[in-house]
From TrEMBL:
Organism phylogeny: Bacteria, Pseudomonadati, Balneolota, Balneolia, Balneolales
Similarity-based family: Belongs to the DegT/DnrJ/EryC1 family.
Cited InterPro entries: DegT/StrS_aminotransferase, PyrdxlP-dep_Trfase, PyrdxlP-dep_Trfase_major, PyrdxlP-dep_Trfase_small, WecE-like
Protein known as: dTDP-4-amino-4,6-dideoxygalactose transaminase
The organism of origin for this protein: Gracilimonas sediminicola
GO terms assigned for molecular function: dTDP-4-amino-4,6-dideoxygalactose transaminase activity; pyridoxal phosphate binding
Length: 403
């Protein structure tokens, strides 16, 4: 728990979670793939048109399932943005893949779609894109590259529930439904939560049957329970990727409030965007933009400061006012684990977002008063502007002393 008057995140409990959990307990089956898991699969398949969904214990697990499903083998190359959470890449490293990291876009922390193709080699197997802040990557562009090179695509839609991509023809596809596979997270920092939880979406029928087997420890138990086979056994590799019904029951209560949660989050996002317009212009701070082909799902509100010093000062300034704002990813290509494995390319925009981006408090229960307090505080943030640069002579003498 945060000790700040305004924390960065606060998991929202809708009020029906315990009732559904009680029902799952009374129902007498609390292991995985029970009544609530199946309700959730049906909800997503109906609401968003995903061909097939499998609830998992986390998005990390869904990504690991994706890596197994794509038969990723040692030496296979996977193209992934560097500005993302560890799991996006780690899932593929676990299978021995070589990761080729891509820079972020100049205008958005998401993957620079124009820098994907130059990394494709004979060994490339898949492209993994991340819909950062729930805002779509240019999926027509990504799928076109993949189709031309015969590659698979995975959408890490961990942050992207209820968000859409608008194709050139104007038709909207929910994120997570466009690539061969998609992954979602219900971690307590996301819009819809289960404590820990996730989901794999399978949009290509070729993967449907095997996905269930990998999900159920490498057995065909799911088909057995449907009465499709008369006994079940070990038929492939897999793991225990399915969550307990207790988690599913909790998540179902959240999903029944999806619209309410999304409406509130959009109000919060729009209030930040409007309330900070003036000060951002004055201080050269960039507000988030939503490309024409993307929608906003109110997952996150971030600002991109002019430089690292301004960002760190803004975080410290808000901290003094009892508001917790936080930076985001450390670049994966220069991480302790990966730096010696990286091919040496510099990824300037990844570094830029790592240094300059700050995320503001964002949760369902953030009140208008609290939000206005944050907005007012930022509107009075001017310190970087007040500090004049050192006069040249002084700067020189400081430099001399340093030698
Ligand atoms: C949250 C997140 C994950 C990890 O999700 P878990 O459910 O915690 O495993 C992966 N990728 C991205 C982009 C995320 O935001």
């Amino acid at each position: 728990m945060s000790n700040y008057k305004i924390p960065f995140n606060k998991p929202f409990i809708t009020g029906n979670e315990l009732e559904y959990i009680q029902d799952a307990v009374d129902y007498g089956k609390i292991s995985g793939n029970g009544k609530y898991t199946q309700k959730i699969h049906r909800f997503f398949e109906r609401q968003f048109g995903f061909k097939k969904c499998l609830l998992t214990t986390s998005c990390t697990d869904a990504l690991e399932m994706a890596a197994i499903l794509l038969d990723v083998e040692p030496g296979d190359e996977i193209i992934i943005p560097s500005y993302t959470f560890v799991s996006t890449a780690n899932a593929f490293v676990l299978r021995g893949a070589v990761i080729r990291f891509v820079d972020s876009r100049k205008d958005h922390p998401g993957i620079d779609e124009d820098k994907i193709e130059e990394l494709i080699t004979e060994k490339t197997k898949a492209i993994v894109v991340v819909h950062y802040a729930g805002v779509a990557c240019d999926m027509d562009k990504v799928m076109d590259i993949a189709n031309r090179h015969n590659l698979f695509v995975v959408e890490d839609a961990a942050q992207a529930i209820n968000s859409y991509y608008e194709h050139a023809d104007g038709i909207r596809s929910p994120l997570g439904s466009i690539a061969h596979l998609g992954t979602f997270s219900f971690h307590e920092t996301k819009n819809i939560i289960a404590g820990e939880g996730g989901m794999l979406t399978i949009n290509d029928d070729r993967f449907a049957e095997r996905a269930e087997i990998i999900w159920e420890k490498g057995t065909n138990r799911t088909a057995f329970f449907r009465g499709e086979v008369d006994k079940y056994g070990w038929v492939d590799i897999g793991s225990s990727f399915l969550p307990s019904e207790l988690n599913a029951a909790f998540l179902y209560a959240q999903l029944m409030n999806l619209i309410r949660i999304q409406q509130k989050r959009m109000c919060i996002w729009n209030r930040y965007q409007k309330g900070l317009e003036g000060v951002c212009k004055r201080l050269g701070i960039r507000q988030p933009g939503i490309p024409g082909y993307a929608t906003n799902n109110g997952h996150m509100y971030y600002l991109v400061c002019r430089n690292r010093r301004q960002r760190d000062e803004l975080i410290a300034y808000l901290k003094e006012r009892d508001v917790l704002s936080v930076f985001h990813y450390q670049p994966l290509h220069t991480s302790k684990f990966f730096q010696d494995r990286h091919d040496g390319r510099t990824l300037p925009y990844t570094d830029l977002y790592s240094h300059n981006l700050v995320r503001l408090p964002f949760y369902y229960e953030l009140t208008v008063e609290e939000q206005d307090y944050i907005i007012d505080a930022i509107n009075n943030f001017r310190r970087v502007e007040i500090q004049p640069p050192l006069p040249v002579a002084v700067a020189r003498s400081v430099a001399d002393q340093a030698v």
